[in-house]
Amino acid sequence: MEIIEKIINGDRRATAKLITLVENNFSQAQEILKKLYNYTGNALVIGITGPPGSGKSTITDKLTKILRKKGKKIGIIAIDPTSPFTGGALLGDRIRMQDLSLDKGVFIRSMSTRGHLGGLSQATQATVKILDALGKDIIFIETVGVGQSEVDIVKVADTVVLISMPGMGDDVQIIKAGIMEIGDIFVVNKADKEGSERLATEIEMMLDLSQNSRWHPPVLKTIATDNVGIKKLLEEIDRHIKHLKESGELEQRRRESTKKEIFDLIQEQWKEMLSTFIDNGFLNKIVTKIIKREEDPYTAVEKLSNILVQSYTQGGVKNG
Amino acid sequence: MEGKKIRVLIAKPGLDGHDRGAKVVARALRDAGMEVIYTGLRQTPEQIVETAIQEDVDVIGLSILSGAHTHLFPKVMELLKENNVEDIIVMGGGVIPEEDIPELKRIGIAEIFTPGTDTRDIIKFIKEKVK
After folding, report:
1. Which of A7, A85, A173, A259 is the Cys-Cys partner for A169 at CB 3.0 to 4.6 Å?
2. DSSP state of B40
3. How far is it, in rounded angstroms, from Cα B89 to Cα B129?
4. Per-domain residue ranges for chain A?
5. Which of A12, A91, A115 is closest, CB to CB, to B35?
6. What confidence tens digit (pLDDT) does each residue in B63-93 have?
7. Could you give the 3-state DSSP secondary structure of residue A126?
8. Can you tell me whether residue A72 is helix, strand or coil?
9. CA proximity to A119, closest of A180, A183, A47
10. Residue A215 has what DSSP assignment?
């Protein structure tokens, strides 16, 4: 395939076009992704997550600059939210990465969530593979500004860097479930602000209670805009990757994420098939029955699933 | 996840620091359901074209208030040609004298929106052009 040839030879236009296809028409992109898969598996994936305004883009920018000096090729996927009201999005992560735009060793793609919850977009996983095939050594995924439960990044990243900043609530926030459980490395950014010392201590205390004895997540303080603490952060990322490789956890994590990807893809595929039922009015008939109490929704779903499986084994769902 | 979205790069080349107009347009396009990549101030034509390629945008909107449009627009068009991406639609806005517009259109700028333009006209223009 010509497009694959282009991507593995570093063609940025072809890469960008394939990412667009993944976002707009996944089933068509899939045929290309099938063939591309053989060229992937070399890149390390670093997730950068944290609340809005905590400094994710700035930290990504500074880390990239150091890595470029070491000759590493970098891919960056920067995700911002889609408006649930208009479907539009304002993607502004590049503002903090302006100096990187002319570096041919860096490829940046801004993405919107397009209704996907969890902090990433549906197309993120495939885009990681595309940038991997493009020859990037390290791929940063910058999630949307997260709240408490957008934890999808653990499915995709080898190392998750969780960024916090002072002034966002009391110590109970830190022991709540969700986002605080996914960090491999914790960063307290804007460390020149009041309360950063206390926040770092509180995170450390929370981590002391956790059961994972194989990796104790470090808590670092940074002032990203002044480049303070970024080198140390990179060292800790290196140390974590080394730990993952030596302990066998890297393979373990990738097995887990592959499992999750399979489930996600199957769900997507079945959702699509289901929507063909909706189109031809079949689903509406069932809904009418349920509303009239002629059938209960649970039995209806059982029947529907059977029909779907049957139609699928007979070569695709066409008519209800 | 399916479905085409119009992607627009709103860029602010040149050295002036006035990005209010650019932000108003970016916001309006967002509200019209488009994905707007906003890159901030003082972008060089090289940066703008490279960003447009990586982001695979349909439209580039350039906001120029510095009077340097007669230099910046042709440079962007030239770079698009060099990179074989002339299919990207380029539009411009800002303080641009009436008498300069024919020449800008001749070099391939699809439209120039001067101060006072209704954002709905910009939205309509983009939706008609990107099909």
Report:
1. A173
2. -
3. 8
4. 41-247, 258-313
5. A91
6. 988 778 888 999 999 999 999 999 999 999 9
7. helix
8. coil
9. A47
10. -
The mean pLDDT of chain A is 89
| Angstroms from B113 CA to nearest CA on chain A | 21
Beta bridge partners of A46: A140, A159
**At residue A239, does pLDDT exceed 80?**
yes
- Which of A308, A310, A239, A298 is CA-nearest to residue A267? A308
Closest partner residue to B29 (CB to CB) among A88, A101, A116 is A88
**DSSP 8-state class, residue A83:** P
Q: For residues B35 and A87, give the distance between their C-alpha atoms in angstroms, rounded to a whole number.
A: 8
Which chain B residues touch A76 with a CB distance below 8 Å?
none
Architecture in CATH of A41-247: 3-Layer(aba) Sandwich (3.40)
> Which residue of A20, A94, A112 is in closest CB contact with B51?
A94
DSSP notation for A142-181: EPPPP-SS--THHHH-SEEEEEE-SSS--HHHHHSSSGGG
Higher pLDDT, A244 or A178: A244
Q: What is the per-residue pLDDT for A320?
A: 40
ipTM of model = 0.92
By Cβ distance, the residue of B36, B44, B53 closest to A89 is: B36
Query: A190: buried, middle or exposed (CB in 10 Å: 19+, 13-18, 0-12)?
Result: buried
- The Cβ of residue A2 has, within 10 Å, a number of other Cβ atoms equal to 8
- Tell me, yes or no, if B49 comes closer than 8 A to chain A by beta carbon: no
pLDDT at A49: 93
**pLDDT band at A188; cut points 50, 70, 90:** very high
Look at A102 and B43 and tell me if their CB atoms are within 8 Å. Answer: no
Query: Is the CB of residue B82 less than 8 Å away from at least one CB of chain A?
Result: no
Give the residue numbers in A contacting B (CB under 8 Å), as ranges. 12-13, 15-17, 19-20, 23-26, 82-83, 86-92, 94-95, 98, 101-102, 107-110, 112, 114-116, 121-123, 268
The vertex-B70 CA angle with B93 and B66, nearest 5°, equals 60
| pLDDT, tens only, B8-62 | 999 988 777 778 889 999 999 999 999 999 998 888 999 999 999 999 999 999 9
Instruction: Name, in order, each residue with C-beta under 8 angstroms of A74's C-beta and a sequence gap of 6 or more.
Output: A64, A67, A68, A105, A106, A107, A136, A137, A138, A139, A140
Give the domains, in start order, of chain B with CATH numbers: 7-129 (3.40.50.280)
pLDDT digits 0-9 by tens, A43-60: 999 999 999 989 999 999
CB-CB neighbors (< 8 A) of A94 in chain B: 37-40, 51
How distant is the Cα of B97 from the closest Cα of chain A, in angstroms? 29
CA distance A64 to chain B (A): 17
